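Hi P.,

Sorry for the delay on this. The queue was packed all week, but I finally got your sequence through. Input first:
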Amino acid sequence: MAVWNVINHTELSSANATLIDWTSIPASYDHLYGLLSIRSDASAEQQSWKCQLNGVTTNFSYTNIYASISGSSVDDEQQTTGAQPTFMAYPRMPADQAGAQNYWGATEFWIPNYANTDTFKTCIVNNGSPSDSNTTGHWYFYTIAGMWAQTAAINQVTLTTTGDDFKQYSTATLYGINGYA
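Then the structure:
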């Protein structure tokens, strides 16, 4: 049976471009798991955000599969060749024009074997970013596979916006998991 341990919990007391910058993550767990409830103060329907590891900006790649209002299609976005991204994931969150419902986005991320020093690091992200609008690009559901082509143990996770701030009361909880879930 898996044992879930809360490593850190953050709730923003004011708007900030960085939701979390968890440092000194202990290597004593098998996996990392995070849960987020987030919103941006941008004057738009949606805002992107990104995940970086160990304070570095190199050797990342990701593939996004996402659904949005754009007919009946499912779209994808891949960043693995050419200009390498400086982060491992690029999902969305609702922003201040996401309707009168004051929607918040929900995200979970899983980093298996984060402390292993023999393999590259992977991350799976599931992200929902709602809106009450039925206009193209106003809501998203993402599944993201990210990779960091480094064997270093992960001891830092940083989540930042790509523009405006995370809204006050955005929350993030990081769990260390021992055993198999």
